[in-house]
Amino acid sequence: MLELACFHPQAVDLAARWAVPQVEFCADALAGGTTPKKDDVRAVRAGYEGRLGAMVRPIAGSFAYDAAGWLQMHRDLEAMAHAGVDFVVFGALDDRGQWDADRIRAVVAESPVPCVLHRVFDEFSAPLEALEWAISAGFQRILTGWGGKDMDQLMALHKAAAGRIELLPGGGIRAHNAAPYRAAGFDWLHTAALSPEAYAAEVPLPDETEVKTLLAG
């Protein structure tokens, strides 16, 4: 199964056409994803029947937020939920590079839809400890690129999770390197399927061959 990161409504239109079962909708591909516009979310929700998630990241370039940033985070989450998403994707650090624990827990607790922890998870050098914290905070899934750095570490995380939380491998996954993840027992993979040129394009669109090959699995 495939989750496709989409950075423009036209990309979600393609995902619908190709029968992609799950989409993470974001803005700003070059920044690694930020909160999309509410009107865009409403528009893609109307035309996409799969599971739709939205990034909630009000500021690019950092995972640490001041009071104004956190207020915007709450507002964005509410807006995404009202626009009809099935889940939201977010995460945050404090100014010391540690979990902004109390404020993250508050966001998860108030969210009317499930929360997914994005790749801020990969910032931690002790991922097994980070895993336990994410579970305790109430996240239902973690998007992680650990497999691209250390497949053994990803497998250790998978074993430690023991069904308490889903791990969604991402980070540079393409058709040519997906097989080890499948063989390791990961039923879902995450990709943007963007070429380097597409990341910088005004309308970043996924590669059809990549997506269809991954869907064929």
Report on this model:
The protein has 217 residues and is of the alpha/beta class. The chain has one domain: TIM Barrel (Alpha-Beta Barrel), CATH 3.20.20.380. The protein contains ten helices and eight strands. The protein has helices at residues 9-17, 38-47, 67-82, 101-110, 127-137, 146-149, 151-161, 179-183, 196-199, 208-216, and strands at 2-6, 22-25, 51-55, 87-90, 115-117, 141-144, 166-169, 189-191. Strands 7-6-5-4-3-2-1-8 form an eight-stranded parallel sheet. α3 links the parallel β3 (51-55) and β4 (87-90). α1 runs parallel beside α2 (38-47) and α5 runs parallel beside α7 (151-161). The mean pLDDT is 95.
CATH fold assignment:
TIM Barrel
Structural class: alpha/beta
What Rg do the Cα atoms give? Answer: 16 Å
List the strand order in the largest sheet.
Answer: 7-6-5-4-3-2-1-8
Give a brief outline of the structure.
By secondary structure, the chain is an alpha/beta fold. Helix content is 41%, strand content 15%. The protein has a single domain (2-216), classed as Alpha-Beta Barrel (TIM Barrel), CATH 3.20.20.
Structural topology:
Blueprint: E1 2-6, H1 9-17, E2 22-25, H2 38-47, E3 51-55, H3 67-82, E4 87-90, H4 101-110, E5 115-117, H5 127-137, E6 141-144, H6 146-149, H7 151-161, E7 166-169, H8 179-183, E8 189-191, H9 196-199, H10 208-216
Parallel strand pairs: 1-2, 1-8, 2-3, 3-4, 4-5, 5-6, 6-7
